[in-house]
Design a protein that fits this description.
It contains 20 helices and 13 strands. The protein is α/β, with parallel strands linked by helices.
C-alpha cells in the first residue's frame, strides 16, 4: 500500500494498514500487536470502526469493517476509493465518455416504466441492496430500477424489471445502437442468477438499445428512442456455458496463483484490457514489431508471435504481405523512408490554390440534446482554417488563420455552418486529413440548414485528402509505426520543427477536445476561458500540421 497515505490527516492509520497487510499474508496480527492510539484526526465513527476492527481478527470481518472504514472516510479524509485498483493502462477519454453515456441512457430508460422503485447503489453493501430489492417486491412494486440480486456469491443488478400477468420481464439497457454478443452474455448471467434464486417467474428477457433513426423533436419519447428486443432464447441456450464459466472463474479466484492465459484478440475485444502492459511483449511497440504491421488481422499478428516471429527480420512469407506492410519492412531495413515520387505526384497534381487546410472537432451525445439530433450523431462544434493563397506564401501558425467555436450551451450547427460559408474561400482545394469525416459532417450540416445546403455541399466537391500519398504507398517512414494518423506522420516527417508538438498542449487529441467542450456546458465565461483557449490551440495545430506536412511532400 502507498505510504503517502500516512502523510495526510484523517487517512488510514499505519497500524490499520499493517494489520491488513498481515491478513493478506495469512498471518493475522494479535490485537496486542496493533497500536490503536493513532494521532490521525479521524471522527468518532471511524475510531469506533478501528476498535471493532481490532476486536474481530477474522478475514471476512476485517474486509467488511475496513470497507466500512474506507467509505466513511473517503471523500472527507483522503480521497481513496477502496474499489479502485490502479490499472497499468487506465481508461481513456472515450471509455469515460461511454460510461457517462450509459448513465444518461439508463436514466431515460426508466421512463419506459414510470413510477418504479429505484434501488440505490451502496458500495460494498451488496447484501443490503438485495434486501431492499426483496422488500420492494414484497411490498407490491411492479417496476424496479437497478434491482439487485445475489446467488452463489454472484451479484447482479438488473437495469429494469417490470411485472406482467405472466411474470417479471427483465431489461438490460445499453447505450449502443445494436446488440452485441457480450450484451447477450450480460443478460445471460442475470437470467441465471434469477432462475437459480427461484424468487419469482421470469416471463421474458430483453435488451434495450438506442434507435439510430430516432431524431429528437423537443422531447425524448422513450418508446421511439429505444429498440427493445427479446433475447430469451439466447440466454436460455447460453445457460450451461454460463454455469461452466462460473465454476472456472471461482476456481481461478480461489487459487493463490495468477492464471496463465495467452494473449489474444480477447485482450482488445469487446473492450481493451487495462492491464495489457502487464501481459503483452515489451517490444510490441518497437518500429519493427510484427504488432506494428499496418491493417494486419490481430489473430495473424498473434499467430506470428506465437511462432517466434516477433520482428520484421524474422518474417519469411513476404508474398502474403500488402504493399504497405512491405514498405514497412523495407523502410526499417534501409533505415530510411520509402519514397515513391510518382504516387506523391498523383496527389499534388490535384491541388488548386488557394489551399484551405480545414479541420472539424465534434462531439456526440447518446441522448440527443437538440431537435434533429440523433443518438451518437457527430456534431461539429469547432473548425480551424489555414489558407495558403499560392505556392510561394509561407505561413506561421497564426498567419492567415480563421477559427470558430460554437457556444457550448446552444445547438452548434447553424452557427458553425454560417461561419464556414463566410470564411472558406470560394475556390481552390480544401485539404483535410481523412476527408470522409469532414465531408460527412458537412453533409449533415447541409441537411440541418437547407438554406445553406448549396454552398455547403459545394465545399465537398473541392476536398482533397492529405492522407492519400501516405496510405497510397507514396511515403512511408518507420517512425509512423504502422499508423497513418496525423499524430504519427507529423513528428516523423517534420521532426526538425519543434513548434509542431501535440504533447505540449493541454488538449492533445480529439476525444479530449470533445469531452472538454461538453464540460463547458453551464459553466461561466470566466471558468470556460482557459478551456476555450486550449481548444483553439489544439485545432489550430491540426490545420497548421497539414500545411507543414504538405510543404514537406511537395519538396520531395
Amino acid at each position: 500500500m502507498n505510504h503517502m497515505w500516512y502523510n495526510y490527516e484523517g487517512c488510514i492509520p499505519l497500524s490499520i494498514v499493517d494489520a491488513i497487510r498481515e491478513v493478506c499474508l495469512q498471518k493475522p496480527l494479535k490485537a496486542s500487536e496493533i497500536d490503536i492510539h493513532s494521532s490521525s484526526k479521524v471522527d468518532k465513527n471511524i475510531r469506533s470502526s478501528q476498535t471493532a476492527f481490532l476486536a474481530q481478527n477474522e478475514h471476512s470481518k476485517i474486509y467488511e469493517l475496513f470497507t466500512d472504514f474506507a467509505h466513511k472516510s473517503n471523500n472527507a479524509a483522503f480521497g481513496f476509493d477502496i474499489n479502485n485498483i490502479e490499472p497499468t493502462n487506465p481508461p481513456d477519454e472515450g471509455s469515460l465518455e461511454r460510461l457517462n453515456a450509459g448513465n444518461e441512457v439508463g436514466d431515460i430508460s426508466k421512463d419506459l416504466f414510470p413510477g418504479g422503485v429505484d434501488i440505490p447503489y451502496l458500495p460494498g453493501e451488496q447484501k443490503r441492496m438485495f434486501e431492499l430489492t426483496k422488500e420492494s417486491i414484497s411490498q407490491g412494486a411492479t417496476s424496479i430500477y437497478e434491482a439487485s440480486f445475489i446467488f452463489d456469491d454472484i451479484f447482479v443488478r438488473v437495469d429494469l424489471m417490470n411485472k406482467t400477468e405472466k411474470g417479471w420481464d427483465i431489461y438490460e439497457v445499453k447505450s449502443s445502437t445494436r446488440i452485441r454478443s457480450y450484451h447477450e452474455y450480460d443478460a445471460s448471467i442475470q437470467w441465471h442468477v434469477l432462475k437459480e434464486l427461484k424468487m419469482f417467474e421470469i416471463n421474458d428477457v430483453f435488451i434495450v438499445t438506442l434507435n439510430n433513426e430516432f431524431s429528437r423533436k423537443k422531447i425524448i419519447d422513450p418508446i421511439r428512442f429505444f429498440n427493445i428486443d427479446s433475447v430469451l432464447d439466447v440466454v436460455q441456450s447460453n445457460h450451461q456455458e454460463v454455469k461452466q464459466k462460473i465454476i472456472e472463474l471461482k476456481s481461478i479466484a480461489a487459487s493463490s496463483e495468477e492464471p496463465s492465459i495467452d494473449i489474444g484478440p480477447h485482450c482488445k475485444k469487446p473492450h481493451g484490457c487495462v492491464y495489457m502492459d502487464k501481459c503483452w511483449p515489451n517490444n510490441m511497440n518497437d518500429i519493427n514489431s510484427v504488432f506494428r504491421f499496418y491493417r494486419m488481422n490481430l489473430k495473424k499478428k498473434i499467430s506470428l508471435y506465437n511462432q517466434g516471429i516477433d520482428t520484421f527480420e524474422k518474417v519469411n512469407d513476404i508474398d502474403s504481405l500488402t504493399l504497405t506492410q512491405k514498405n514497412q519492412m523495407e523502410a526499417f531495413r534501409k533505415a530510411a523512408p520509402i519514397i515513391k515520387k510518382q504516387e506523391i505526384k498523383k496527389f499534388t497534381d490535384k491541388i488548386i490554390y488557394p489551399i484551405s487546410f480545414f479541420d472539424f472537432e465534434t462531439f456526440t451525445d447518446a441522448v440527443p440534446l437538440y431537435d434533429g439530433q440523433r443518438p451518437h450523431m457527430q456534431m461539429p462544434f469547432q473548425y480551424s482554417l489555414h489558407v495558403q493563397n499560392d505556392e510561394n506564401q509561407a505561413l506561421d501558425i497564426d498567419d492567415n488563420h480563421f477559427e470558430f467555436i460554437a457556444d457550448p450551451n446552444e445547438d452548434p450547427r447553424r452557427a458553425i455552418a454560417e461561419s464556414m460559408v463566410q470564411k472558406l474561400p470560394k475556390k481552390g482545394s480544401i485539404m483535410a486529413y481523412n476527408e470522409s469525416f469532414e465531408k460527412s459532417c458537412i453533409k449533415s450540416l447541409a441537411e440541418y440548414c437547407p438554406d445553406l445546403a448549396g454552398e455547403l455541399l459545394a465545399f465537398n466537391e473541392r476536398f482533397v485528402d492529405l492522407i492519400e500519398p501516405f496510405r497510397g504507398g507514396g511515403y512511408y517512414d518507420s517512425e509512423f509505426r504502422g499508423s497513418f494518423s496525423i499524430k504519427k506522420v507529423l513528428p516523423a516527417i517534420c521532426s526538425s520543427n519543434k513548434e509542431l508538438d501535440y504533447k505540449k498542449l493541454e488538449i492533445s487529441n480529439g476525444g479530449l477536445a470533445s469531452s472538454s467542450y461538453k464540460g463547458l456546458r453551464n459553466k461561466s465565461n470566466e471558468d470556460a476561458q482557459k478551456t476555450l483557449e486550449d481548444l483553439y490551440q489544439y485545432c489550430r495545430l491540426d490545420t497548421y500540421a497539414m500545411y507543414a506536412i504538405y510543404q514537406k511532400i511537395i519538396q520531395i
